[in-house]
Structure formats: structure tokens, C-alpha cells
Design goal:
The complex is a heterodimer of chains A (112) and B (180).
Chain A (H helix, E strand, L loop, with lengths): L11 H26 L1 H7 L8 H23 L6 H18 L2 H6 L4
Chain B lengths: L7 H29 L8 H38 L13 H7 L4 H14 L2 H16 L7 H31 L4
Chain lengths: 112, 180
């Protein structure tokens, strides 16, 4: 854990971590809608039958979150990035995830 | 004792909700207060270090407890909830999803309540882990960077929203159709 307070620290690692949470969340939301629209995708996401497609949706969301965190962190670890812009983009991605996992929204795709 | 009995499934539901879930909500209050007051202009160097140690403890607790809550929920209690009853079964009390779906007055507890709970809960560990990792990496520096501190507070609230929504819906669904 960092103890020094005087040194300027690059914000890239923090932005990478936050963006990765956004990417994992958005993919999770899109998979939730996808599993409603496509029976094939729903079957493919059923990694463990007792839990159904939730196992694949959350499993893939977790993998995307962790892999994107590693990749973006390796690109930004010593860099300063436009933090506010990245934070807003990440919040929008989390919002997409929250919206598409809200039952009235993903069920609206069921009829189409 | 005292004529009280708790089944194996009810015990797991208690661990899932009351230990992991409630522990998360309790840790959230501590993490939020510590993060809100982590300000370089208010704390001495030693004070900030001590403050960050507690903040790290609280945020790691959030990450661990929310992860345990969603893993136990998804892979232990949820399969019991969604288990299919045997062909021709008329008493559905031991099959909560089927019990709820069979009653037009109760089916929204599944189609809205449980469906939202099982999905929204997963945002909490992802976001809490990110907050804990940033606290671990940046430590007392967070007290000097107002934008970063504010961003972490917003993320904490998003994680809290996810966990509190899941917790509340879980309690209400379990009250309507208990895991027997």
C-alpha cells in the first residue's frame, strides 16, 4: 500500500480498474438480453444446469471484467488518462448493465 | 431448543443473507464514512495512514462479503429455489419458483423480484473489488486527489444500490416462498 503523500501518482491504474468494471457490467447486460432473444445463446450460457443461464452470464461477465482489467491496466499503468471522461464512460457502461438486467427491460425483448 | 428448528436450506439462506449480505451493508457504512473523511487537509500523516488501514479493511470486507454472497446465492441457494417439482406434484411448497409461478397473484415475485435480485447482485462484488484494489494501490494519496475520492464514493453507492436491492428483494421473496 502506498505510504507517500507527496508524490504524484498516475491515474491510469485507477481508470483501468473502473473501466473494466464498466465493461464487465455492460457485457453482462447484453448477455442477459441476448439470452432472452436467442434460445441458442441461452443454452450456450447454461454452464451449470441447476443455475441455468445465470451461470454463463455471470461467468462471462466476470471473465470480461478481469481480462479487460489486466489488458487496460498493462496499457495505462504508468500513464495519466482523462480521468473524468473515463469515469463517465465507465458509469454509462455500468448503467447499460443495470438497465439491461432490469426485468421489465430485458423481458420487453422477449416478444420480438 | 425452545421448539425452534432451522432446516439445512434455511441455515444456508441465513448465512447468505444475514452473514454475507448484512455484513456487506454494515461494512458499507464504515467504508463510506472513512472514505468521506479521508482528506489530506484534515488528517496528519500518521492519522491518514491509520485511516487508510481501516478503509482498506472495510473495502476488502465489502469485496469478500459481496463475492461470498453472490457465489453462495447463485450456486447454493438459487438451485434450491429453481428446482423443478416432480411430474404431477400438487404441493409446491418445497419448490419456490414453481410455487410462485403457479399463482397469478404471486408470480411477479418471481418474474420481477427474483429475476432482478439474481441479476443485480453481481454488480456489487465487481465494483467493490475495484474500490478495494484502488484503495490498496493509492492509499493515502486518495486524500489528496479529490476527483479520485469522489469517484470511489460514487462507486461505493452503486455497489450499495446493487447489494441493498438484492438483499431487500431476497428477503421479500423468501418471506413469500421460503426455502424449506
Amino acid at each position: 500500500m502506498v505510504e507517500k503523500t507527496e508524490e504524484r501518482m498516475p491515474n491510469g491504474p485507477a481508470a483501468a480498474a473502473i473501466l473494466a468494471a464498466g465493461l464487465g457490467s455492460a457485457v453482462y447486460g447484453l448477455l442477459t438480453v441476448g439470452a432472452v432473444v436467442s434460445a441458442g445463446l441461452k443454452t450456450a450460457l447454461t454452464w451449470w444446469k441447476p443455475t441455468g443461464a445465470l451461470s454463463g452470464k455471470t461467468g462471462l461477465g466476470t471473465i470480461i471484467w478481469l481480462v479487460s482489467w489486466i489488458v487496460v491496466h498493462s496499457l495505462w499503468k504508468d500513464k495519466d488518462v482523462p480521468f473524468t471522461r473515463m469515469f463517465v464512460v465507465s458509469l454509462i457502461l455500468v448503467g447499460v448493465g443495470l438497465l439491461f438486467t432490469f426485468p421489465p427491460v430485458f423481458e420487453a425483448f422477449e416478444a420480438h | 431448543m425452545f421448539g425452534l428448528t432451522v432446516t439445512f436450506r434455511e441455515a444456508w439462506a441465513l448465512v447468505h443473507g444475514m452473514v454475507f449480505g448484512f455484513g456487506f451493508l454494515l461494512s458499507f457504512a464504515g467504508a463510506l464514512a472513512l472514505l468521506y473523511t479521508l482528506r489530506g487537509d484534515l488528517l496528519t500523516t500518521d492519522g491518514a495512514r491509520s485511516h487508510v488501514r481501516w478503509l482498506l479493511l472495510a473495502t476488502v470486507a465489502l469485496a469478500v462479503l459481496s463475492s461470498l454472497a453472490v457465489i453462495s446465492g447463485t450456486y447454493i441457494t438459487y438451485p434450491w429455489y429453481r428446482a423443478a417439482p416432480p411430474e404431477g406434484a400438487t404441493d409446491l411448497a418445497a419448490y419456490p419458483r414453481s410455487f410462485l409461478k403457479a399463482d397469478p397473484n404471486l408470480k411477479a415475485w418471481h418474474s420481477f423480484g427474483m429475476e432482478w435480485k439474481e441479476h443485480v447482485a453481481w454488480f456489487a462484488p465487481w465494483i467493490s473489488t475495484v474500490v478495494a484494489a484502488i484503495v490498496w494501490r493509492y492509499g493515502v494519496y486518495i486524500g489528496r486527489d479529490r476527483r479520485l475520492r469522489r469517484a470511489l464514493i460514487v462507486l461505493l453507492f452503486v455497489a450499495f444500490f446493487a447489494a441493498a436491492t438484492a438483499g431487500m428483494l431476497g428477503a421479500l421473496v423468501t418471506k413469500t416462498a421460503p426455502l424449506m
